Amino acid sequence: MKTKLTALLGTLIFVSSIGSTSLLAQGQKKVQAKPFLIQGKLPHLTMMVKVFWDDEDVSFTESQKEKLLLIRQETMSGAKALGKQINPLEASIVKRTLAGEKPESLKADVEKLASLRAKATIIHIECIYKTRAVLTQDQRDIIE
After folding, report:
1. Residues 56-81 pLDDT 10s
2. What percentage of the chain reaches a pLDDT higher than 70?
3. Which contacts of 23-29 are long-range, i.e. CB under 8 A and separated by 24 or more positions?
4. What angle do CA 92, 75, 113 make, to 5 degrees?
5. Distance between CA atoms of 86 and 141, rounded to whole angstroms?
6. Which of 11, 54, 75, 91 sits a CA distance of 20 to 30 A from 26?
7. CA torsion through residues 20, 94, 37, 52, sign
8. 124 vs 105: CA distance, rounded Å
9. Residue 31: CA atoms inside 13 Å, Cβ hemisphere, count?
10. Better-predicted residue by pLDDT, 106 or 4
11. Residues 89, 6: contact at Cβ < 8 Å?
């Protein structure tokens, strides 16, 4: 269990250090971020559940595993679909900004980007809520 906990903490530290979108000065290469508005502050419970999937101390029931898999699938598909819209839109805004386009002409796309990221954040929050509802308090104490 200590090994899994250490691996989990290492993974969380690594993921949180990557946390935000950034542009490299040369070549404007983008480091892809998560599609959420809130970066690195909300837990990714499905990742943590995955780490503890077969852990004896957590002991997920078969019913819990089925529900947790469904939650993960719904969350991942929703976030990926939004990411496919967010990433090109964000790249376009950056490119057009650096090309000197007027802010007024970018406003609608920036608002659309914000709306898409808000939808992705709601999906993340719903995932946290639904996952916690499936787990017992003892399981939450171990995982969170």
Report:
1. 999 999 999 999 999 999 999 999 99
2. 78
3. 23/94, 28/94, 28/95, 28/98
4. 20
5. 34
6. 11
7. negative
8. 30
9. 11
10. 106
11. no
63: Cα within 13 Å, side-chain hemisphere? 4
Exposed e or buried b per residue across 16-50, where buried means at least 16 C-beta atoms within 10 angstroms of its C-beta: eeeeebeeeeeeeeeeebbbbeebeeeebbbebbe
* pLDDT above 90 (res 100): yes
Structure tokens that stand for 102 in this block: 């007027």
CB 8 within 8 A of CB 51: yes
Burial class (CB in 10 A: 0-12, 13-18, 19+), 14: exposed
Query: With helix as H, strand as E and coil as C, how does the chain read?
Result: CHHHHHHHHHHHHHHHHHCCCEECCCCCCEECCCCCCCCCCCCCHHHHHHHCCCCCCCCCCHHHHHHHHHHHHHHHHHHHHHHHHHHHHHHHHHHHHHCCCCHHHHHHHHHHHHHHHHHHHHHHHHHHHHHHHHCCHHHHHHHC
Q: Is 100 left (phi over 0), alpha (psi -120 to 50) or beta?
A: left
